[in-house]
């Protein structure tokens, strides 16, 4: 005999499936794998996202790409002020009514990458909680982390491969990993297997949490120079780091080697092996030479 908890979990799961299928039918959407139209149908995953976000009624929450509203309908139940940013006019115009016209939900029809975050939050602290559109995951993360008005945290679903790249340790670092980790601490909330979506995609996903540092490692005025250095270092993967830096930076090779050695970095190492702390030391040396 099933327990009450198991029955409730099954009921919640069936409720989300029903909601999804009704919304798709009303919108006349036939999901296309080719277009990446995969809809989350497991409520327990959404519950984990909400729990990890630690949302309280006084919070302001930005959801990017709410789509048909699977996550949105759980976000509004927290009592927080929810700002759902949807680029698709049709989805935006039907979202609020589809989930019961809650008073704490504002649906904004715009491209978040072309928008000023302050217009959504009025300068208040905020969180980002979203199942991000996979094809623009990195630009959206950068848009928030590099903003003058950063979120207090981001709890987002991304492709598993992207999550693993972002969370990489020294040895497997990349420009994307460095570009996130230099702004905040990253951790995995849960893995989301492909069977939790309709239709089932080809790849698994993961929910990750990014918490920006209280004290930024980089001042805004330093970011361009830092990422010029980082892009140079990662421009020739699997090469000893002194080689790509010598080719890409306006410095002599001997100066590059000296800069690395004074940063306590062996010039024969690869960019993928450097930690965030080592990149920061290298940047301090680099600043004194440009």
Briefly characterize the structure.
The chain has 12 helices and 9 strands. By secondary structure, it is an alpha/beta fold. It has 2 domains: 4-212, Vaccinia Virus protein VP39 (Rossmann fold), CATH 3.40.50.150; 220-287, Helicase, Ruva Protein, domain 3 (Orthogonal Bundle), CATH 1.10.8.
Helix content: 40-55%
What is the number of independent domains?
2
CATH architecture of the largest domain: 3-Layer(aba) Sandwich
Radius of gyration, whole Å: 22 Å
Largest sheet: 7 strands, mixed
What does this structure look like?
This protein is of the alpha/beta class and 290 residues long. The chain has 2 domains: 4-212, Rossmann fold; 220-287, Orthogonal Bundle (Helicase, Ruva Protein, domain 3), CATH 1.10.8. The protein is built from 12 helices and 9 strands. It has helices at 4-27, 43-53, 72-75, 89-98, 118-121, 137-145, 160-166, 175-181, 223-233, 242-248, 253-262, 276-287, and strands at residues 39-40, 60-64, 81-86, 105-109, 127-131, 153-159, 184-192, 197-198, 205-212. Strands 4-3-2-5-6-9-7 form a 7-stranded mixed beta sheet. Strand 2 (60-64), helix 3 and strand 3 form a beta-alpha-beta unit. The chain is elongated, with a radius of gyration of 22 Å. The N and C termini lie far apart (72 Å).
